[in-house]
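Morning - 6-O-phosphono-alpha-D-glucopyranose inputs below, output right after.
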Amino acid sequence: MCGIVGFTGRQQAAPVLLAGLSKLEYRGYDSSGLAVRDGDSLAEVVKATGKLRNLAEKIDNGAALPGTCGIGHTRWATHGEPSQSNAHPHVSGNATGSASGPVESDVVGVHNGIIENYEELRAKLTGNGYTFYSSTDTEVVIKLVDYYYKKYKIGPIDAINRMMVRVRGSYALALMFKDYPGEIYAARKDSPMVIGVADGETFLASDVPAILKYTRDIYYIDNLQSVRILPGEAHFFDLNGDEVEMESTHITWDAAAAEKGGYEHFMIKEIHEQPDAVRDTLASVIKDNRVDLSVSGLTPDVLKDISEVHIAACGSAWHAGMVGKYVIEDLAELQVTAELASEFRYKKILLDKDALFIVISQSGETADTLAALRAAKERGIRTLAVVNVVGSTIAREADNVLYTLAGPEISVATTKAYSAQLVAMYTLALALADAKGKLEKNDYDYYIEELLALPEKISRALENKERIQWFASKHSNSRDMFYIGRGLDYAISLEGSLKMKEISYIHSEAYAAGELKHGTISLVEKGLLVIGLLTQEGLLEKTISNMEECRARGAYLMGVTSNGNYNVEDYVNFTIYVPKTDEHFAGSLAVIPLQLLGYYTSIARGLDVDKPRNLAKSVTVE
Ligand code: G6P
């Protein structure tokens, strides 16, 4: 999704803004732009389509755009095609979209989010003499702020507040007003934005990595708050325009954690960080060999009264929810649903009053997941967020929070955050089962032992790297792939298939193995790669039979199984073994070769692994 940066201070703004935008590239973008002011002079706007280097080249890496105050943006198109005229910054006055140079306008701004009632507002503004030169909703918000600013002759904060009351949708906005040199005004609703103040300078960004170089003390702007930023100062205001005190959050993870650290891509670095992500997440909730979720507010007393569990999430986080469903149902003997947040949010909500509603999210900002959380909260149901980003909107709004400790994840395709989500779900399943008296002590101890052994086993699963790289290069020209499994193996197939399609652009589908005969098998033809997940002993032979049916129609078979299941080799063409663990947790190991397969296939095809086309790391619009 779009990335925003802002800076006001002593240094030259353009290089700071370019460096900040490069740290936000992982969010996905198709064009970029800057507006910089030199003292009292007019803001100069420069925009470029494509990669950030195109923008950097236009302004000689910042040298050609002097000034110590500015805003910047990477755009991920929602309203209006990716183009120079739709790229931000946008202005309140008249301008042609492609023109770069000084802008006469009173308000210049950048935006992340979606304004739902923009057509109605555009018509109103057009009626009031405004002309639009782009097809973006952003231009509407900026002109609306300008309209109130002039009509009521009020200051920037009051004009922004009037705009916030009038627009529907989500936004993070950074604006500069011609009459207020050296200052930036910002506001947000449901789209993330953070601020850092250090050494007489102030930084603003959509996400922490963009400003971590300057400070670790970060202010998370609240929903419907606005901010006035001056060099070394940030003043926060509520919707009434009254100034409010804000506490900063100290970031403990290292800036280096958001760098590639010698790896060729963030994705492969993050794949290798999985043993640590899992170890740290487990260590945060397993004390003296017992799961203790009281830090999240989930004491045994709370857990024992939970009647049913509902999970909502998007993408890989939903896949982690599917795994959670199988494991909680089996260990705690509770009814569990796992739904796509985008579906859940528009349904009639039929949840028991003692239900636990869980949302899972790496970023803590996914729009549909946030909306699902709010819908459940409105019904008075206890909510738990399993979130990676500390201080994110979802983390702040849920009743209880269980943090995954994966550290910053930059690659668009998630790996380590997903793995940390899996173990968070395992520990929740164990805590629920224990609170409900469903486990013998011996079994409980055994599960804890198996959980604690996972990080080392994940490291061993990574040792398959070379074989998978070889296999990936052999199959990198495939047109289609199928991932099949039953039960937990099906849940892992979903994630494996997504890892393949999102970064290699090869069509792939995950299927519950038993469903193949109901349609999909008609697609099997000579040479098609079918990948069977075979970690659940009771279901393994059945999935192998389904794979055999594919082979009979020309498919090439790959199996992923646990050490010990050596007869799998007799049935499939290529077998990957992962260390043996309790079957409830086997997905944490089986997913590793599937992540590697996606990664190496993308590499073999020469694609942009960390920033796949059309995708965004954090989907902050519906
Ligand atoms: C995007 C990312 C996925 C992620 C999904 C949900 O599609 O590319 O990797 O699983 O959003 O994001 P969240 O931050 O809520 O986990």
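Note: The longest helix spans residues 416-435.

O.
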